[in-house]
């Protein structure tokens, strides 16, 4: 398996507080990878470390065969786009203006948009079905529309790799599905490598080629949905007693129901 992005022996933390313990992790090229785990286990911190938003204490991050720490910022931005959790835009921006920010890594001189920039912006709006909202103010959009606008900005950056931190948070079921169907389409038609932090295990298993399961700053399991989405893994990672079966529509594993794993006394 070829990795477009990987961490080798990386640990991450703030001052004396280590959040991610020394680990190896990889994001397979050309696939959708989901990072799952309990709250506070280090999922978002891992994404920040892999994207160079946060420095590693030990080890190294390799992006497309090169140490990310040694790459110029503009070169990293041409290879990788990242959509953080709950991104904020300046007030008064239209969708088109927001998406145009994604062209920054490709601009030179005074940053005037060229014809290829306008083509990339239009393509990003079309891919996210946001062309009808191009002149709409970001603040006037619904949650799902706003998230698609941010994804369009990441698309306009025209990178082979896109990282997203909880892109479905605060969205209802229909809008969550809409966003993930969009990411699937981007992966299949535009060959984008996508890695995301996500809480919904069934959506993770449904849309991912590869899953990384974390707990307490460690990667406990990684592999296909069939390998990670099991009763034994969910018990170990989430302390849940889960009933896992096949999704009748997709054939992927799904958690039908669950309960807190019983604790049996030895007495």
TrEMBL record:
Cell location: Cell membrane
Record has Signal as a keyword: no
Its membrane topology: Peripheral membrane protein
Pfam family, one: ABC_tran
The keyword Disulfide bond is annotated on this UniProt entry: no
SMART domains: AAA
InterPro entries tied to this protein: AAA+_ATPase (IPR003593), ABC_transporter-like_ATP-bd (IPR003439), ABC_transporter-like_CS (IPR017871), P-loop_NTPase (IPR027417), Siderophore_ABC-ATPase (IPR051535)
GO CC term, one of those recorded: plasma membrane
Biological processes per GO annotation: iron ion transport
Residue ranges constituting the ABC transporter domain according to the UniProt record: 5-241
Protein known as: Iron complex transport system ATP-binding protein
């Amino acid at each position: 398996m070829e990795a477009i992005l990987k961490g080798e022996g990386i640990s991450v933390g703030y001052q004396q507080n280590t959040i991610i313990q020394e680990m190896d992790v990889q994001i397979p090229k050309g696939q959708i990878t989901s990072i799952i785990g309990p709250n506070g286990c280090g999922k978002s911190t891992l994404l920040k470390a892999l994207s160079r938003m946060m420095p590693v204490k030990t080890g190294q991050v390799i992006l497309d065969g090169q140490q990310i720490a040694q790459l110029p910022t503009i070169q990293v931005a041409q290879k990788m786009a990242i959509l953080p959790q709950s991104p904020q835009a300046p007030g008064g921006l239209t969708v088109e203006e927001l998406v145009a920010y994604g062209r920054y890594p490709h601009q030179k001189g005074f940053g005037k948009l060229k014809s290829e920039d306008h083509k990339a912006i239009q393509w990003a709006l079309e891919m996210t079905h946001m062309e009808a909202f191009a002149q709409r103010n970001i603040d006037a959009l619904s949650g799902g529309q706003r998230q698609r606008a941010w994804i369009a900005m990441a698309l306009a950056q025209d990178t082979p790799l896109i990282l997203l931190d909880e892109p479905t948070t605060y969205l209802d079921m229909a809008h969550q599905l809409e966003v993930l169907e969009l990411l699937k389409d981007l992966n299949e038609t535009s060959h984008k490598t996508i890695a995301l932090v996500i809480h919904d295990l069934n959506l993770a298993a449904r849309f991912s080629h590869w899953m990384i399961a974390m707990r307490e700053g460690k990667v406990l399991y990684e592999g296909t949905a069939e390998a990670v989405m099991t009763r034994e893994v969910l018990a170990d990672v989430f302390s849940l007693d889960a009933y896992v079966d096949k999704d009748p529509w997709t054939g992927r594993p799904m958690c039908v129901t669950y309960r807190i794993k019983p604790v049996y006394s030895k007495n």
